[in-house]
Every structure is written in C-alpha cells, then in structure tokens.
Amino acid sequence: QVPPVExxxxxxxxxxxxxxxxxxxxxxxxxxxxxxxxxxPGKGREFVANINWSGSSIYYADSVKxxxxxxxxxxxxxxxxxxxxxxxxxxxxxxxxxxxxxxxRSESSxxxxxxxxQVTVSS
Length: 123
Known about the structure:
Strand content: 35-45%
C-alpha cells in the first residue's frame, strides 16, 4: 500500500483555522479506518483524531474536541482535518496513517505513515 500524503499545514495566528488533507493514490485507502496524529518538538507522537472507513464512527483527543473536525471523502480518496480556534500548543507536525489494529489511540495501531505537514500557531 502506498503511504498517504499530508498537505495544508502552515503558519497561522492564534484563533485561526487550517484544513489539513491526507490523500493517497491507492484506492484501497477508502477501506481503512484512518487517524491523525501530531508531534510537537521534543515530544512523542500523540493521537488527534480517528475516523472509520465509512465516516460513521469518529474519535477525538480531549485536547482538540470541539475545535477540530475529521471527515473523509471517499470519492476523492481523502481524509480531512479541519482545525479551528488554533492555539500555540497545537504547533506540531501532523501525520495521517492507516489503522491496522483496534486501539485507535495508540501509535502502534497504525501503519503507512505519511511524511507529515507542519502546523505553526504563533502571533
């Protein structure tokens, strides 16, 4: 399976918004549950959000609940992460990955990681 590719990161002021995209040329991508993780400088990779293959089941980390929205468009083979009301502590490299085991919060449950996209929240 071809690893997905993330895009949409950038520099934004506190309170601003960004929309991240995770896409793959592999059509089997639509069959998998997908997750977004992030890694801040000097820290480990942490869970952000997860969406099942149909979009009917979604989970968020407490730190982003109410501000971030994960969604997917199977026709475009893409998973999105809409990030609103961004805070400086959201600064990190954001990754998407394919879920291969059942513990959606665990990094070890994912495979085929993308290269990541940098999100910087600063005034």
